[in-house]
Each structure stands twice: as structure tokens, then as C-alpha cells.
Amino acid sequence: HTTLSKSAALFERAQAVMPGGCSRNTILRKPHPIYAERGAGCHVYDVEGVRRTDFANNVASLIHGHAPPAIVAAVGEQLRKGTAFTVGTEAEIAYAEHMCGRNPAFEKIRFVNSGTEAVMASLKAARAFTRRPKIAKVEGAYHGLYDYAEVSQTAKPENWGQPEHPSSVAVSRGTPRRALDDVVVIPFNDVERALAILDGNRDQLACVLVDLLPHRIGVIPAAKDFVRALRRWTEQNGALLVFDEVITFRSNVGGAQQWYDVQPDITALGKMIGGGFPVGGIAGRAEVMEVMNPLNGPAPFPLYGTFSANPVTMIAGHTAMELYDREAVDRLNALGDRARSLIGEAIRTADVPACVTGRGSMFRIHLSAEGPENYRQAYLSPDRAALLSKFVGHLFEGGLLVVETGTGFLSTAMSEQDVDDMAALVLDALRKIKPCL
Ligand code: PMP
After folding, report:
1. Residue nearest to atom 7 of ligand 1 (CA)
2. Pfam families of this UniProt entry (predicted)?
3. Is pTM beyond 0.95 here?
4. Does residue 31 have a cis bond before it (omega within 30 degrees)?
5. 347-370, pLDDT tens digit by residue?
6. Beta bridge partners of 41
7. Which CATH architecture has domain 69-323?
8. Which of 8, 74, 245, 436 has its CA 20 to 30 A from that of 102?
9. Residue to mutate (ligand 1; options 24, 251, 271; most atoms within 8 A of CB)
């Protein structure tokens, strides 16, 4: 008779009341999830008392790590004043002013409660503005759960379709065929094929949706000529360009788009702009954002949301973003450079076929000599996926949390020492996995 660990016992309770034992599949791991007791800075302590260094940061949403004192203080004060009202707060206005000041492409902004909602609102705004039904998205890119945004990341290669014409294939069973028909799928970083597909849907497309460093495509940057081509095509054909910066906003004061000489019409935001609380945002050209304005008659796109712009999220987000200024961004991106460079060194020292991708404060470790160039190459067969999960398991045993895809997101709570220690653990884990590679 062995007694269950606290985490194992919690998972048994969880499975009795939640499908899969959780509300978000992200927390699942084998043999059972771990449960956090608390977090402080770049560390998470689980209910068994084990401390791990957190390079997952709630999938890129904690830019300052756990319980940063300035946010704890600001939120604590707001909690005593109330958390949500059916009237406005100045906190919302002040934060909107701050966000619009971070990027000239953000002429107007509205807040919502998640990245899913931000992408959904962006697509609906684009449809309302252009009066067109279809949206285009990149094959395999993750943009949350909205039916139209969810299309084409399938675990089954037999459903991909021809490379010249990737299929609009459902993720969730029962997705209406009509929704799929209104999604045009383009390959990542393939200008010629992408434009040919877009041309075939000219006059029907409301927008093209792109993530500049898509997680599901291996955290590889969108090519400058790809982004430029999409900007030119959308401009010439009356469609909007939408960037999903839910993850990538951390790249720069005004998002990863500032690495490109291109401005989108709309940017979908989320994660880190909530300072640790649920959030989404939709920012863009004033003329486009007007579709949400109900002051001069019914809004073409009426946007509601009970908890949207609640003062707790606004205060937390505003405090977090004030602290994430030019200097903080540059310091964090330099730490990211150090992380990728040390991981590269570890790969050479271990002498294994692996590589590291990413940019800014993001990295991804691939257990193959070359990184992928698109979704089809990023796809891992069940064998390769099992290997990656074994590798991530070694990191975990060594005291490191990364996203299960082998992706790490840095936080300002980290020091060079934390990054160096991470790279040492990566070297250990690579050596352990070497016989299987
Ligand atoms: N877009 C991207 C690029 C994301 O990574 C995510 C979440 N991982 C979303 C949208 C959806 O955000 P949320 O989970 O807050 O709904």
C-alpha cells in the first residue's frame, strides 16, 4: 500500500468533478498534474513543497513573474474598493491612454477578457468594417477557440490537404461546415502560394490574421517579405491586416510588429497586458474601431462583456505595463539572447541533433537538427511528441517549468544566473535523452 502524493490525490478528486480533471488542458501532465501552492518571482512552489524555476509563466502571460510587489500592492488597494461595477472607472481610461501611447498603430483600444475574445472581436470588427464574410489565417497557427480562428490545426496529417491549398479543417467535432467555408487557410512564410490562395478569394475576405512568431509553428518569425506581401495584398484588395500579438506583445514596447516596417489595421492583445489577470484587448485604426461605437446609432459590431475592463485587471495590467518600459524590454530581450545562445552551446556540448528558435524573450527547443519552416514541418509524429515530452519531463525533474512544446518565456523576475542555471539543466536533459535521438 503506497500513499498517494498530494498532487496525485488532488488529481483523483479533480477527475471526479471535471472532464479530464481540469478546466484547461494545458495543466495536464503525466502521470498527474502538479498543483501550485504559491509563486514568488521566477519560482513556483508546488503542494509537495518542490520549487521550480518558471519559464512557462502561465504560457507567456506573466511578464514580471509571480506576485510582483507593485502589482500586489495596486491590486490590494483596488480589491478593497470593489472589483467590478456596472459603471465605468477611471482605471480603464488611464490604461487605454497608456496602451495607445505604446504604439502609433493603436489609435483606439477596447478591452475584453481573454485572447480568444480579442481575436473573435478583431475578426468581427473586420467583417463589420468591410461587410465581407471570410477570414484568412495561417495554417496551424493557434488563435484561441473562436470557430473561425480555430480552423486548421489538426493532429491528423491526412486532413491537411494539398500544400498549394491547405484544407479548412475543423478542430472541434461538429463545427458547422459553413463556418469552415468562410475560413481561407494560407501556408506560413510562403508568399507565392499564400497570395495565389488569397487571390482566389478576392472581394470576399474581411481580413488576414497572422501571428508574427507562432507558437504552434515552432516559434519561428514571420519573414519580412511575407508580412509585407500580406500588407500590400490586403491594402490593394480592401481587406484588413490583423496581427495576433496575444503572446508576442512582449517583444517590444508596442509588440513584435515594431520589428517589421508594417502596421496592421487591428492588433489582438491578451495575456501579459492583464498583469496576471484575465484579459484581452483589441487595438487599431480609429476608423476601423468605430464599428464598435454605438453613440451615433446602432454599432455595426456591438461589443459587450460583463467583466471587460474591470478595474482589477485594468490596475494590474497598467502597473505591469508601466514597469515594462523600453529599458525593461531591452533587458529582457538581452536575457532572451543569452538564453538562446547558452541553449545552443548546450546542444553543441551534448552533441545531439537539436536546435533552438525564438526571438526576444521567447525560445523553443527542437529535438531535430533543423527547425521547422512551416506547420507541416513543425508537426510531431506521436513518436517525436513522446520524445519531446520525455525531454520536457527531464527538465521538470531538474526543477524547470517550460511549456510542454519545449517553449520558454522569460520574465523580468529572472537574472542572468537563472538563465545560466536553466541552460545547465537543458544540457543535463539533452544528455539523458541522447540515446533516444
Ligand atoms: N492567440 C494566441 C497567439 C495565443 O497563444 C492564445 C493563447 N495561448 C490565444 C490567442 C488565446 O488566448 P486565451 O487563452 O487568453 O483565450
Report:
1. 144
2. Aminotran_3
3. yes
4. yes
5. 999 999 999 999 999 999 999 999
6. 66
7. 3-Layer(aba) Sandwich (3.40)
8. 74
9. 271
